[in-house]
From TrEMBL:
Domain Hydroxyproline O-arabinosyltransferase-like: 73-366
A Pfam family it matches: HPAT
Protein name: Hydroxyproline O-arabinosyltransferase-like domain-containing protein
GO CC annotations on file: membrane
Organism expressing this protein natively: Gossypium stocksii
Keywords: Glycosyltransferase, Membrane, Transferase, Transmembrane, Transmembrane helix
Coiled coil: none
UniProt membrane topology term: Single-pass membrane protein
Gene Ontology molecular function terms on file: glycosyltransferase activity
Keyword Transmembrane helix on entry: yes
Main location: membrane
Length: 367
C-alpha cells in the first residue's frame, strides 16, 4: 500500500525521465555486447587466417545479393598449347568438375580460351574455344600480352549463358566451392601486395590522366582472379588490351612493371571505366607464403615451394624437398609426387595432395 501510494504521487515528468533513462541504458548495454562480440569474432577469424566479411572494401549495402540468390558465373581461363600450360589446365578442370555442383558453388560453365590459333590434343577433354594470338612479334616475348586480346575475341564470338565471368589462370586449383563474390557493377578481385599504383604515379599518369582522379582509384589487382559482370567485361576488355600494348611499347613503363605489366594494364583499364572492385583476401591463397586453407577458395601455385627435411622453408634455394611448377616445363609432373616432410604448412601439403589426386584420376595423364 505504501509503495502504491508513493508511486501514485510521483510526477509524470519523473516517470517519463526514468523510462527514457532505462531504455537508453539498455540500448547502450546491448550495443556494447554486440560490438564486443563482433570484434571478438573478427579477431578469432583473423587469427585462424580467415576473413570476417569483405576484408578490404566493404560491399555497399544496396548491392548485397539475397542469401538464397544464385548468380552463376562462367569460368574462363586463357592458355597456350605448350605442355606446361596443358597439364595445369587439365588439373584445374579436374577440380572445377569436383567442386562445381557442391553446396555454396555458383560455378557455371567452363571455357579454356586457347590463344594458339589452332586446336591441340585436349579440346575434347576440356571445353575449349580457339582464338588467334597477337600478330607475330607484337608481344615482344611477353606471352601474357595475348590474354586481353584472347578475351576480346572470345567475348565477341562466344555465346555465354551466364551473366558473370570468372577470369582464372591455369595454375588455379579450386579448394572450396566458389560462390559469386561480385555484385552488379562491383566485380570481386584478389588484392596483390605487389601491385602498388601509388608507388608508380609518374608512370601511370601516362595512361591514367589527372582528370580521372588520384592514382589510388586504380585497384591493387590483376585481371585474375576476378569475377565480373559479362557486359562490364565487354566494355573493359578492349581498353585493357590497348593499355597493355601501349605500356609494353613504352620503355619506361615496361622496365617499371616487368612481368606484372598486364596486371597493371587491367587495373588501369577498369579504373578508366570508373569500375571499383570489391577486394577479397579470401579469394585465393598462395603457398608457401599462406599457411592455412581456412575458408579460401583457390590455391594459386605460382611460387616454388622448397624445404629441407626438417620442414624449414628454403626459398630462393633448391630444397631437399620441392614442388615448383617450373620443374615441369617440358612434361607433366609424374603421378604420386612425394608428400612434404613434417612441419611444412597445410597449404603446401594440400596442394601436393590435390595434384596427386588429379593426376591419379585423369586418363592418359602421361600423354
Amino acid at each position: 500500500m505504501i509503495v502504491r501510494k508513493n508511486m501514485g504521487r510521483a510526477s509524470p515528468l519523473v516517470l517519463v525521465t526514468l523510462v527514457l533513462g532505462f531504455c537508453f541504458a539498455t540500448y547502450n548495454l546491448v550495443t556494447m555486447i554486440m560490438h564486443n562480440r563482433a570484434i571478438s569474432k573478427w579477431i578469432e577469424d583473423d587469427a585462424n587466417g580467415g576473413i570476417f566479411f569483405d576484408p578490404v572494401i566493404k560491399m555497399p549495402e544496396n548491392v548485397r545479393k539475397p542469401k538464397n540468390a544464385r548468380l552463376p558465373f562462367h569460368v574462363a581461363v586463357t592458355a597456350t598449347d605448350a605442355t606446361y600450360s596443358q597439364w595445369q589446365c587439365r588439373i584445374m578442370y579436374y577440380w572445377y568438375k569436383k567442386k562445381k555442383d557442391l553446396p555454396g558453388s555458383d560455378m557455371g560453365g567452363f571455357t579454356r580460351i586457347l590463344h594458339s590459333g589452332s586446336p591441340d590434343n585436349f579440346v575434347d577433354e576440356i571445353p575449349t574455344i580457339v582464338v588467334d594470338p597477337l600478330p607475330e612479334g607484337l608481344d615482344r616475348g611477353y606471352i601474357v600480352l595475348n590474354r586481353p586480346w584472347a578475351f576480346v575475341q572470345w567475348l565477341g564470338k562466344a555465346t555465354i549463358e551466364e551473366d558473370y565471368i570468372l577470369m582464372a589462370e591455369p595454375d588455379h586449383i579450386f579448394i572450396n566451392p566458389l560462390p559469386n563474390l561480385a555484385s552488379g557493377g562491383f566485380p570481386a578481385a584478389f588484392p596483390f601486395f605487389y601491385i602498388k599504383p601509388a608507388d608508380y604515379e609518374k608512370v601511370l599518369r601516362k595512361f591514367f590522366p589527372e582528370e580521372m582522379g588520384p592514382v589510388t582509384n586504380i585497384d591493387p589487382i590483376g585481371n585474375s582472379p576476378v569475377i565480373i559482370k559479362k557486359d562490364l567485361l565487354k566494355k573493359i576488355a578492349p581498353t585493357w588490351m590497348n593499355v597493355s600494348l601501349k605500356m609494353k611499347d613504352d620503355p619506361e613503363t615496361d622496365e617499371a612493371f616487368g612481368w606484372v605489366l598486364e596486371m597493371y594494364a587491367y587495373a588501369v583499364g577498369s579504373a578508366l571505366h570508373g569500375v571499383q572492385h570489391i577486394l577479397r583476401k579470401d579469394f585465393m591463397l598462395q603457398p608457401p607464403w599462406d599457411f592455412e586453407i581456412g575458408k579460401k577458395f583457390i590455391i594459386h601455385y605460382t611460387y616454388g615451394c622448397d624445404y629441407n627435411m626438417k620442414g624449414e622453408l628454403m626459398y630462393g634455394e633448391i630444397g631437399e624437398w620441392r614442388f615448383d611448377k617450373r620443374s615441369f616445363l617440358r612434361g607433366p609432373p609424374p603421378r604420386n609426387l612425394s608428400l612434404p616432410p613434417p612441419g611444412v604448412p597445410e597449404s603446401v601439403v594440400t596442394l601436393v595432395k590435390m595434384v596427386n589426386e588429379a593426376t591419379a584420376n585423369i586418363p592418359n595423364w602421361e600423354a
